[in-house]
Design brief:
It is a single chain. By secondary structure, the chain is mainly alpha-helical. The protein has 2 domains: about 80 residues, no CATH class; about 160 residues, no CATH class.
């Protein structure tokens, strides 16, 4: 038995990235199983998976006193590569190239306005909160504001502006909290707020922005609405990555100096 364990550990250490995909796949499978069988679909599998990931990151940090969460544990080091900037940016670019601009027009003026207004509000709210907590420079305020938009826009904006690692971490945390909140709240508020049609889902995706949160929340509400909400929320991420380190930064810099 010990011999078999040694072989498994050696294989995992030598093939970290492959092991990371297996581990994440297992967590994803369990999360969707738990969503279906333990919560009857009330809590989406994506939300459960994110919570498990946060718990594992905390445990890894406590065990090793490191800075990369569970990736600081040698056995799970491949997760650091899997969740690193290279694959993250690849996913962003792949998502952006997978969208046809003609499809955005189908969302109508309401979808476009929702996209622009929500982006401005998220950056403004994030920047004000950052300022209130002592992050008074334009780079930090913009990065945290971008994180409030989504946990992808935050690190992309922070990396482009040269923000410190702690500020980027805060931006990611803000985006993750927002994503989980949208996942959990969407099914509860869907009917009272009239989120029952493709047009409403399209506008909702532009307002919320977080693709993972919106898609998971709509999936728990009505799977047929997911493509419509995901359409504008995907544009939201790409749009945020464009305007975050440019327009939003210059506006905030002009205000705070």
């Amino acid at each position: 038995m010990d011999f078999l364990s040694d072989i498994i550990l050696k294989v995992v250490k030598s093939n970290g990235l492959i092991a990371a995909f297996v581990i994440v796949g297992a967590i994803t499978w369990f999360s969707y199983w738990a969503s279906k069988n333990l919560t009857k679909g009330r809590v989406h599998g994506s939300a459960i998976a994110i919570v498990i990931g946060l718990i594992l990151a905390y445990v890894g940090g406590e065990l090793t006193h490191g800075k990369k969460g569970i990736a600081d544990v040698t056995l799970f080091s491949g997760i650091g590569l899997m969740g690193g900037a290279m694959l993250r940016d690849f996913c962003i670019i792949a998502t952006a190239f997978g969208i046809d601009l003609r499809e955005l027009k189908k969302a109508g003026l309401a979808g476009v306005l929702a996209l622009v207004i929500s982006m401005a509000l998220n950056f403004a709210i994030g920047a004000v909160v950052a300022y209130a907590f002592g992050y008074t420079d334009a780079v930090s305020m913009t990065t945290i504001g971008a994180g409030v938009a989504t946990f992808i826009v935050g690190p992309v904006t922070g990396a482009a502006l040269g923000a410190s690692s702690d500020v980027i971490a805060l931006s990611i945390a803000a985006g993750v909290v927002k994503s989980i909140a949208v996942m959990l709240v969407t099914p509860l508020l869907a009917k009272p707020f009239g989120l029952t049609t493709p047009a409403a889902a399209t506008v909702y995706g532009g307002l919320m922005g977080t693709t993972s949160g919106t898609a998971a929340g709509l999936a728990a509400t009505d799977p047929k609405l997911v493509p419509y909400g995901a359409l504008t929320s995907t544009f939201y991420t790409g749009f945020g990555c464009l305007v975050g380190p440019s327009i939003c930064y210059f506006v905030i810099k002009a205000i705070v100096g």
